[in-house]
């Protein structure tokens, strides 16, 4: 369903690939979009959590770069997801 996932580059550009990229032509509140993806798609939820873990753990060989218009929000969202998971 998702194929091979490259966590080294996170695209937030509408029309891009992955759970952080809204569909082409999308306009709206980006954090609402991410929350809806996180809540409604288990695959997206897992990928977002993994990205948060990679950032926090700074896993060797897996640098994560966020690109696109929502790069900052996407990174912060992934970090918040991992923080909430790791506290439990």
**What's the average pLDDT?**
88
Radius of gyration: 12 Å
Into which percentage range does the β-strand content fall? Answer: 5-15%
Largest sheet descriptor: 2 strands, parallel
pLDDT < 50 runs, ≥5 residues: none
Q: What coarse outline follows from CA principal-axis ratios?
A: globular
Q: Structural class, judged by helices and strands?
A: mainly alpha
Q: Give the number of DSSP strands.
A: 2
Question: Terminal Cα separation, in Å?
Answer: 29 Å
What is the count of DSSP helices, taking H or I runs of 4+ residues? 3
Question: How would you spell out the order of helices and strands?
Answer: EHHEH
Helix share bin: 40-55%
Strand order of the largest sheet: 1-2
Structural description of this entry:
There is one protein chain. With 88 residues, the chain is mainly α. The protein has a domain at 7-14 and 38-88. It has helices at 30-40, 42-57, 71-87, and strands at 9-11, 65-67. A two-stranded parallel sheet has the order 1-2. Helix 2 (42-57) crosses helix 3. The longest helix is centred in the C-terminal third of the chain and has 17 residues, at 71-87. The mean pLDDT is 88.
List its traits:
88 residues; mainly alpha; two-stranded parallel sheet; globular
């Amino acid at each position: 369903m998702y194929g091979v996932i490259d966590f080294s580059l996170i695209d937030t550009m509408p029309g891009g690939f992955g759970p952080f990229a809204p569909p082409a032509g999308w306009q709206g509140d980006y954090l609402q979009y991410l929350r809806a993806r996180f809540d409604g798609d288990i695959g997206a939820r897992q990928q977002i959590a993994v990205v948060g873990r990679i950032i926090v753990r700074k896993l060797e060989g897996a640098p994560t770069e966020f690109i696109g218009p929502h790069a900052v929000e996407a990174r912060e969202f992934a970090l918040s997801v991992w923080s909430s998971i790791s506290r439990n």
